[in-house]
């Protein structure tokens, strides 16, 4: 299930990379699956997961917009988007993905 949601998000022309991290910061699903990408997403997730001050956050850099969404069971969804993306559209896609993942995580035993 996780892989399907991550793959769906990556089909957007504005989203370059998506990762789903478990509560321990390990990558459960990622697109594209590259070692450098894996390491970066894991580090970012671990840094942000140590703080319970947000449910979602957006980081804006000169090249990327990074959306981070906290999920059920302390999972984290991270999306790297192009700096000139349709942010409203991306946020809507993340919201739909969050609903799908949270429903799945609530019913799963992992």
Supply the CATH superfamily name: Dynein light chain 2a, cytoplasmic
Strand order within the widest beta sheet: 2-1-5-4-3
Helix content: 40-55%
Q: What is the helix tally?
A: 3
In CATH, what is the class?
Alpha Beta
Rg, Cα atoms, Å: 13 Å
Low-confidence stretches: none
Number of strands: 5
Q: Please state the second-level CATH architecture.
A: 2-Layer Sandwich
Average residue pLDDT? 84
Sheet having the most strands? 5 strands, antiparallel
Note the beta-strand portion: 25-35%
Question: What is the CATH topology classification name?
Answer: Beta-Lactamase
The secondary-structure class comes to alpha+beta
Q: Sketch the topology as an H/E string, one letter per element.
A: HEEHEEEH
What separation lies between the terminal Cα atoms?
12 Å
Could you say which overall geometry the principal axes of the C-alpha atoms support? Answer: globular
Structurally, the number of domains stands at 1
How would you sum up this structure in a few lines?
The chain is an alpha+beta fold and 110 residues long.
Produce the secondary structure layout.
Elements: H1 2-10, E1 15-21, E2 27-31, H2 35-49, E3 56-60, E4 64-70, E5 76-82, H3 87-107
Antiparallel strand pairs: 1-2, 1-5, 3-4, 4-5
Describe it:
By secondary structure, this protein is α+β, with helices and mostly antiparallel strands. The chain has one domain (2-105): Beta-Lactamase (2-Layer Sandwich), CATH 3.30.450.30. It has three helices and five strands. It has helices spanning 2-10, 35-49, 87-107; strands at residues 15-21, 27-31, 56-60, 64-70, 76-82. The chain has a five-stranded antiparallel sheet, sandwiched between helices. A hairpin with a 3-residue loop joins strand 3 (56-60) and strand 4. Helix 1 (2-10) packs antiparallel against helix 3. The longest helix has 21 residues, at 87-107. The protein is globular and about 40 Å long. The model has no long low-confidence stretch (mean pLDDT 84).
